[in-house]
Amino acid sequence: SDVCSSDLKVSENFSRYEFECQCGCGFAAADVTLLEALEDARAHFKKTYTNRKVIISVTSGNRCHKHNRKVGGAADSHHVKGMAADFVVNNVHADEVADYLEDKYPDRFGIGRYNDRTHLDSRTKPARWDLR
User: What angle do CA 69, 79, 77 make, to 5 degrees?
Assistant: First the structure.
């Protein structure tokens, strides 16, 4: 086959390569619960802003332990468990994205606010932080 395994779709709108560790080690897990929440956010903002092109871009998905240390990630980061993504929704402010996620999932998930992105992880208990 000429198709690289990292090019394979892991959900309707996401491919495995989008979640690969940025160091090139090949760590590219795709947590189903995380993918469902990202797909939901995409659908919500596409419906909300029919006049805008809505695309979710994952800026940091999986991280091996070495890369996580290099970027200053928490030692117990959900990125190293393959259960987290930092992302942007183009043409939608990061605060609005975090507001939506916090309203939609009040009793679960890790949701972090940053100036230029949103963090989402699929932990079962809620965690919230604001590093803007």
Answer: 65
